[in-house]
Amino acid sequence: MRHAQVRFRNIWVEPLVDHPPVIAAASGEVSPSVAHVPRLHAATAERDRSDPDALLAGFAGYDDGQPMAALVRIEQFLRSESPPGRAAFEPKLVALLEEPAITPAARRILAGWLRWVGSARAVPALERLAASTELAASTSIAALADIPDPSAETALLRLLATAPESSRVTVINALGQRRAAAALAPLGRTADSANPALATAALEALVRLRTTESFSTLEKLYAANPGSQPRGRALLEAAGERLRQPPAQVIAPARAQALAAIAAVLDSSAATPLRTEAAGILIAADPARAGERLIPLLNGGDVSLARHIARQLVLSGQPHDLSTLLMGFARLPVPIQQALADAAGARAKPDALPLARAAFGSTDSAVRATAALAVGRCGDESAVAWLVPLLTADPALASSGRQALGLLPSGPTDERLRDEFHAAAEPAMRASLLGVLADRQDYTVWPLAAALCAASDARLRFAALDAVVRLARPGNFAGLLALRARLRPDDDLRGWSQAVVATAASDPRPDDCVLVIQRALAEPGAERQVLLGALASLRCDQAAVVLRGLLFSTDPAVRQETIRVLAAFRGDTAFVLLREAAQRASESDERILSFRGFLHLIAASRQGEPPAPLSSVLEHYRVAWSLALRPEDKAAVLAALRPIKSKPAQELLNELAATATQP
């Protein structure tokens, strides 16, 4: 038997028929693949064939950490040799393995080579080594597991009784790897061991045997101690492995035996996790008939098990099971009803909708809330009639109803919701429906929502403003500004302000936005902070011209207001204008304000998405240094640079700090 790469102590081996193992360094690092080991020069290979004894000269003294060139050369020789040549070389390896003076590292490597080139001739030496307490014992056991000759299996059976306690788990694993039928009886006895490690290893090996007799042994072991989780898990693993195979490859009695074993675990007093595992295996292996066996357990006393079964049966989607669950839904305990409703939502297919609707009729509010979400995931536009009444129910149900309406497919659903909105008379229902339409990003209601921002009902007015803000798109800037006249003093304007700035920044006609903003600024009672923010977000020359005019206005209040707004908006225009303000401001307060705004912009640019390049950040800090006229301003620049852990930043910090100390 040949298996994938395995690690033993400091050696990695690839026990494939045509791939010799590659020795790893003593550090334990994985060595390169065999394909990456250089091929021997033809002359060198021929010399090694003519004098193979020279290859092993001095090898007995090899130790971890020494140069590995000689080891690689031996491996390449073994690789390049024909099977008869390797067979002729095997006795030399065996003799060296039993050399008394050989180092443990060399003995371990030899055992690894024999793992893939060894035959019956190597078995006695490997068995003796495996029975020792040397570090190479585990490598020898692995070699016996891989050598195909029956004598290797016989040796492992003897080792099961003679090997040191520390090696017996490895021996058991090797017998399982070989699927040694002769090991059935000793493995069955070992599974009764008081040593948990040995018992568990024996159970796993019995699973790997995959015979009728080993399965029967696992059944007997479990029947003797139904409370044993390792025994139950081993029996389930064997049963699941048998049932996962195509029916054509498993005879009917064997399949029936596996199903009976699963039933035994389900009916036992085993812990819930084990019974849950049994139910999962049964559903996966026999979905068409699992429900008949499992549905009666939904009314049992183990709620956790029943929840798992309910979920798995719904997700399996067998029509007969879904129909049976639907008919008996009202008689199930509330926790199981909720589990079924949740599973219907997780299935998210039309065949689970009847079950979700049955749960929707429950008297338990938590079940109804879960069912509402399930209806949203499984249903179509017809579910609108079921879900809309929930919008004015208690908060938990209303929240579930709103989420569910947001999950329904678009198209006809949106049309039905708009019809419901127009037909609704109560402001509370209209407000809720408007929120749902905004959740669904139905932009067709934007004009309607804008008109309702002047509604007399506070709830409807709030929902309308929220919908306007969430549905706003590029091109709505002028409409949002005009909407301000309809809003009341007690309305929350934060969302409106953010939407104004966002739609300005994304407007496809920025120059037109500048003209709109200029007109709005000239009106009495204008929202100047919002308008200036929108102006600062525009990326066009005309916006920069207007901002520069405000920045150097004759009105100090206008100048300071503009500086504060620019400091809040990251962008090249803001950097340029604040730099000019710091250089040209006639008032010291404005210079300080501009300087601080400039520093704030630099810090914000580092945290933006995406962050500004480091070179740009450092150049801005160099500019800030030139703007710093007071000692505290210079200290602020140095303090901002210190946390930047990069060589260029530290070099700039040292340079500026040196100039700060100069007289």
Shape: flat
Task: Give the class from helix and strand content and strand pairing.
Answer: mainly alpha
Low-pLDDT segments, ≥5 res = 1-43
Could you give the order of strands across the largest sheet?
1-2
- Average pLDDT works out at 87
The helix tally amounts to 38
What's the helical proportion of residues? 55-70%
**Biggest sheet details:** 2 strands, antiparallel
Give the termini distance in whole angstroms.
83 Å
Query: How many E-type strands?
Result: 2
C-alpha Rg, in Å?
A: 39 Å
Described by its quaternary structure, the protein is single chain
The proportion of strand residues reads: under 5%
Please provide a written account of the structure.
This protein has 663 residues and is mostly helical. It has a domain at 1-147. 67% of the residues lie in helices and 1% in strands. It has 38 helices and two strands. The protein has helices spanning 42-50, 52-55, 69-80, 83-97, 104-117, 123-130, 137-146, 150-162, 165-178, 184-190, 196-209, 212-224, 229-244, 252-266, 272-285, 287-294, 303-316, 319-327, 334-347, 353-360, 365-378, 384-387, 395-407, 412-423, 427-439, 446-452, 458-471, 477-483, 494-505, 510-521, 528-537, 541-551, 556-567, 572-584, 588-606, 614-627, 631-641, 647-660; strands at residues 6-8, 11-13. It has a two-stranded antiparallel ribbon. A hairpin with a 2-residue loop joins strand 1 (6-8) and strand 2. Helix 30 (510-521) packs antiparallel against helix 31 (528-537), helix 35 runs parallel beside helix 37 (631-641) and helix 36 packs antiparallel against helix 37. The longest helix is centred in the last third of the chain and has 19 residues, at 588-606. The protein is flat. It starts with 5 loop residues before the first strand and ends with a helix.
